[in-house]
Design brief:
Length: 282
């Protein structure tokens, strides 16, 4: 009797473009997440690919970027009204022009209205350069126009996110605050701004704030402490370097090769070594 083909599970894309997003790695990450835990805690949720492609009873999802968390809570509350408001901006005749983009960026930076900022955030994300989310010293969004030919409106992705978000709590806070919210039923997955591949390169922006080597070390120490003292498993993704292997000493490593780029040109996209450090409960 022929073996039945294994049923493939549909993967869900995030509705945001996101530099360093984990969509391609969700299978690898899921294999390492303990299945007996009820709650997934993510201190660096980003666009939410791990959240969208995992199956936990509940989620605590955090980021230090208030615009991102405001957006997620807005879509969770009323996705249909959100889509209805975004469409005229997204499909405006001049939407894919530099002048329209920079006018909307200026509007975003001037606005203090949470709903308006949430709507403009997605427009800027989809039409800006390469899914970057970057702010200047004045906390103004400063990602340049992307100049892409085609733009996809992620309507179904937003609806799926809103449905799954009903089992999630979105928190604006740093990783120390988020770790403190985990309990004995939790597993913590961290996707911090990556450590530089070389020590002379340190372009790691934590929502407008530097996430430097000292932050990397503090996160690693907190992961070890949480696993040892609170019996909570912790996973961390990062570049595979001598520095990261040193700070994650004592963890189990899963090494992978991933395509990475901050370029519009495919020829400049190369594969780099990444690792997932697993601080596993004994």
């Amino acid at each position: 009797m022929a073996k039945q083909a294994k049923k493939s599970v549909k993967k869900h894309r995030a509705f945001l473009k996101w530099a360093g997003g984990k969509f391609r790695l969700t299978d690898d990450i899921n294999r390492l997440l303990p299945k007996q835990k009820q709650c997934l805690v993510e201190p660096f949720v980003g666009a939410g690919s791990v959240f969208l492609n995992s199956q936990f009873e509940r989620y605590i999802l955090a980021d230090i970027n208030p615009d991102l968390i405001n957006l997620f809570n807005t879509i969770k509350a009323d996705v249909e009204n959100y889509i209805k408001t975004l469409k005229p901006i997204f499909f405006h005749p001049e939407a894919n022009s530099a002048s329209y983009y920079y006018a909307r960026r200026e509007e975003f930076n001037r606005s203090t209205d949470p709903f308006i900022r949430s709507v403009l955030f997605v427009y800027l994300n989809r039409f800006g350069f390469n899914g970057l989310c970057r702010y200047n010293a004045n906390n103004e969004f400063n990602v340049p126009f992307g100049a892409y030919k085609n733009h996809y409106f992620p309507e179904q992705e937003m609806r799926y996110f809103a449905e799954k978000a009903q089992s999630a709590v979105f928190i604006c806070g740093d990783f120390q605050q988020t770790f403190a919210m985990a309990d004995e039923h939790s597993v913590i997955y961290c996707d911090p701004p990556y450590a530089p591949l070389t020590q002379s390169s340190n372009f790691t922006q934590y929502s407008g704030h530097d996430f430097g080597l000292l932050h990397q070390q503090a996160l690693a120490e907190l992961a070890k402490q949480t696993q040892l003292e609170r019996n909570i498993p912790v996973l961390i993704s990062n570049h595979d370097t001598k520095f990261t292997r040193q700070i994650y000493k004592g963890a189990r490593f899963r090494k992978i090769r991933v395509q990475r780029s901050i370029s519009q040109h495919g020829a400049r996209r190369i594969k780099v070594g990444e690792l997932i450090a697993v601080f596993k409960v004994k």
